[in-house]
Write a structure and sequence with these properties.
By secondary structure, chain A is mostly helical. Chain A is built from ten helices and no strands. The chains are: A mainly alpha (188), B mainly alpha (140).
Chain lengths: 188, 140
């Protein structure tokens, strides 16, 4: 994966990590501000539970603090890719012990300026989409969340999932096909 | 060098990544867009993928709260250094606490015989017993 390797050499976190390991408060703060949103967003989307996403974020950053001093710049992946992989693993551990059935407070997430009927329709659609995504096989769901919802590039998502880009593409195509069938006649 | 783009490859791209060219692999994006410009037929693929993209749209998850950010930073290596400083300061605080305790007990022992000799205080202590129903306050 030559593109991923060249990105690893240009890893924007590479220079930050020695300072993080040395306990530089500003460096730690920068690392959190750069990555906490993505880590938390990924965990929220995979687990469907904001409180669990908080817990996962704390686990992931504990791992980050622990490994910052041992990070080798110019390795095979960027630090952000490693963080994504750790987040995926933490979410997999939690999902193994339960299925994501907890309903999320959808209405709170929708724009407040929409009328009540529109908000109810949107909330129903969002719940149907969330349910359909949650029912996907785990690898398809991860691929879809990483690429479609989190906006990761193919090489980043494939590296985080420890797959080839071709395998990732296949997972994505199957996920979208399954979702099209499930959500078939519904309007957006 | 960008590979030749075919309708089949464009179909595979939209099937996997959807209609937004920003999601397609950078190495194939330009060729795919050129094919779309040249072939109105290929645009049908895009419309189909677009419809599913719209169906899949979800609100953004909530951003990390300030409380979570603070918790993440409390566990950071820098915060551990502060923790050690705090622990170091306890090394001075603990002997001071022990000295205060010793002085307090010593003074208490010295004063206790005087207090026991004061019989008037026994009434005060009796009134404070927990097994007292305090009927004088609860019954008419």
């Amino acid at each position: 994966m030559p593109e991923a390797q060249s990105d690893a050499r240009e890893d924007p976190d590479a220079e930050l990590l020695p300072a993080v390991a040395a306990g530089d408060a500003r460096a730690c703060s920068t690392l959190v501000d750069r990555h906490a949103g993505r880590v938390h967003g990924l965990a929220s989307r995979l687990l469907g539970d904001a409180a669990e996403a908080d817990d996962v974020s704390q686990e992931v950053f504990l791992a980050a603090w622990k490994h910052a001093g041992r990070w080798r710049p110019g390795g095979s992946a960027r630090f952000s890719t490693w963080l994504t992989r750790v987040t995926l693993n933490a979410c997999r551990d939690r999902l193994r012990s339960r299925r994501p059935t907890a309903p999320v407070e959808v209405l709170e997430l929708l724009p407040g300026d929409a009328g009540p009927e529109r908000r109810t329709l949107d909330a129903e659609r969002v719940m149907r989409v969330r349910a359909a995504v949650a029912e996907l096989p785990p690898r398809q769901r991860e691929a879809l969340v990483l690429c479609h919802y989190q906006g990761l590039r193919q090489d980043e998502a494939a590296a985080a999932m420890e797959l080839s880009v071709d395998a990732l593409e296949s997972l994505l195509a199957r996920a979208r096909r399954a979702l099209r069938l499930r959500l078939g006649g519904e309007t957006a | 060098m960008s590979p030749a783009m075919t309708r089949e490859r464009l179909q595979a791209l939209t099937a996997a990544y959807g209609a937004d060219p920003a999601r397609w692999p950078a190495s194939e994006r330009d060729a795919a867009l050129r094919l779309l410009d040249a072939s109105p037929d290929a645009e049908a693929l895009l419309r189909e993928a677009q419809a599913l993209d719209m169906q899949l749209a979800l609100p953004e998850p909530a951003a990390p709260t300030p409380a979570l950010r603070a918790a993440l930073l409390r566990s950071a290596p820098g915060a551990r250094v502060v923790g050690w400083r705090e622990a170091w300061s306890w090394r001075f605080a603990l002997p001071a606490l022990a000295l205060s305790l010793t002085l307090g007990i010593g003074m208490g022992l010295a004063v206790a015989p005087v207090a026991q000799a004061d019989d008037g205080d026994e009434d005060v202590l009796t009134l404070a017993q927990l097994d007292d129903d305090y009927t004088e306050f609860t019954e008419p």
